[in-house]
Batch of 2 targets.
Target 1
Amino acid sequence: MSQEQDASVASGSSSARRPTVLVTGAAGTLARQVIRGLKADHEVVAVDFRYAARLGPRVPSYKVDVTKRGFEDVFRKHDIDGIVHIGRIGEDSSRESRYNANVLGSRRMFDLALNYGVRKVVVLSTFYVYGADAYNPALLDEASPLKASNLTMDLVDSVELENLANIYLWRYPELDMTILRPCHIAGPGVRNTMSLLLSQPMAPFLVGFSPMMQFLHVDDMARAVEMAFRHRGRGIYNVAPQDWLPYQDVLRECGCLGLPVPSLPPNVPATLSRLMRWKAFPSFLVDYFKYPVVIDGALFRKTFGFEPEHSMAAVFEHYRHKKKR
C-alpha cells in the first residue's frame, strides 16, 4: 500500500472530532466531486486501486486494492464512520476482474464495515441492472426485476453487487445502507462508455431504433450521493431526471454524426462492435441502444428532496462545445 500523505496530519487540531468517511474510487471525477462536498465537515480518507489521488493536504489518499490485505490497514489506521462506495471497476475490464473487485471486494468491504463499527454506507450501483428488454415498462421503479444478468453475462457482477448489498441492507440495519441506481452520468471529466461515445464526432446507432435515454450531470450526481450520505434513508433508490430523449436526438444535441449500424440479423451489431473494437459501444451493451431503460427517480426526489440543477440540454452542450475546441 502506498500513501500520499501521512494520516496523522489529517486529524487536525480541533478538539471536536469530525466524522470520518472513506471514499472508494477516489481518482474518478464523481468521487472527487463528492469528496469536495464532504470534506467541509468530515475527515475524508480516499482509496483507489489505480493510484493515490491528489486531493489536498487534509485528505489521506491511498492506492489500494479492496481485495488485498492492505485495505484493512486503512480501517485500522482511521476511525471510519461512513463509507461512500463509488469504486466499481468499469466495462473496460475483464469479467473476472470486475467480479473479483465489484462483488468479492465489496463483500470484504461490507464485512470490514461491520467489524469496525461503520454506521453509514452508500453504494453506487447502475441502471444497467434492470437490463435492456423489449418488455420493459415505460418507467422502471425500484421494485422492477433486475434482468441484466439474464440477458448478458457481462453484467453479472453489477447484479451480484446489488444482490450482495441488498443482503447487508436488510440483514444489518446498523449499517444504514443506501443503494443508488443512477441513469447515465455525464459531463466534464466523466469517462464512462456513454461519455466517451458522446465525445466522439461520430457515434453508432442501430437502424430502426432510438430508445429513450436519461442523463444526469456529474455535479448533480455528486450532490445526490452527498445527500444520500448525510441523511438517513435506508433502501434502494433510482436517481434520474424527470425527462428523457430519444438516443438519435441525443446524438444531434451533442453534435455527433450518426453512424448507422444494421440491426438485423440480431447478432450483427454486437459482432460489428467486437470486430471494430468499439470501446464506447461495447457489444454487451448493444441492447441498451435498442430498448429503452427509463427509470423513475420519484422515490429519491421525495425522500431526499433532490432536484437536478443542470438540465439535460446543459449536459449535451458540454459535448457539443467540446467538439468545437
Target 2
Amino acid sequence: MFAMRKIPWGKYIFLMLVAGFVLVPMFATVLGGFKSLGELRTNPFGLPEVWEFEYYAQVFADGSIWQLMKNSLIIAFFSVLLTLIIGTMTAFTFSHIKFAGYKYLYNYFLIGMMFPAAAAILPLFLKIRDLGLLDSLSGVVIPQVAFGLGFSILLFRTFFEQLPSELFDAARVDGCSYIKFYWHVILPLSTPILATVGVFVLVASWNNYLLPLLVLNTEQQYPWTLGIMQYRGEYGIEWNRILAYVTVTITPAIVFFLFAQKYIVEGLTGGAVKG
C-alpha cells in the first residue's frame, strides 16, 4: 500500500499569488511596449494583436539612454565593489579578531540598518556639499555604500563565523597571516554570500531615485531613474513608449539577478539565519 502524499495546496496557492503579484505587472510592462496606444487602453494585460517593434527601436535609437545606462552602471559597479571590499574586511575583523569594544563598534555599524537615507536627507545633503561631492557620481556612490554596510556586515559576519574554525587553525600552523587567510581562504569560500550581497546592493543602487535627485544637477550625470522622469515628461501620454523605456532600463538588473540567483538562497541560508 502506498501512502497518500498530502499535497500542500495552501502553500502552492500562496506562492502562486505572490508570483502573480510580481510577474503580472512585469509582463504587462514588457508587452505594453509592443502595443499601440488604443490597444494598450483596451487590452493592457493580454498579448498584442499586432506586435509593434518601433517603440523599442526608438528607445534603442535614442542616444541619451546609453549615457543614462552608463552612469547607472558606473554607480552600481562602484557601490557593489566598495560594499563588498569594506563589508568583507570589516566582517572578517569582527568574526576573527576580538578587541576591546568590538561589540559596541559592531552594533554601531548595525544601527545604520535602522535609518533609511530618506530619514537623513538634509544632514546628508549638507555633508555631501561640505565634501565637495555635489553633482558627481562619487556623491551618490559613497552614501549608498555607507547605508549598505550595516546589512552587508551582518550577513558577512554570520557567514564567516559558520566556516570551520579548523581552517583558521591549520592556516595559523602553516604561518598564514590574517590578510593571507582573508584573501586565499575566506574570499574563495564566500562566493554565495558575496553574490547575495552583491545582488541586493546592485538592485538597490540601480533603482535608487532619491539620492541621485538630491546630488546630481547636470543631465550628463543622470542615471536612468532620473532620465525616465525626463522621458515621462517628453512623452507624457504615450505610455507604450514609456513602458518600452522602463523595460529596457530594468533589464540589466533582472539579468544580473537571474544570473546570480543560484547563489542567493545558499548565501541567505548560510549567512542570515542569526544576527
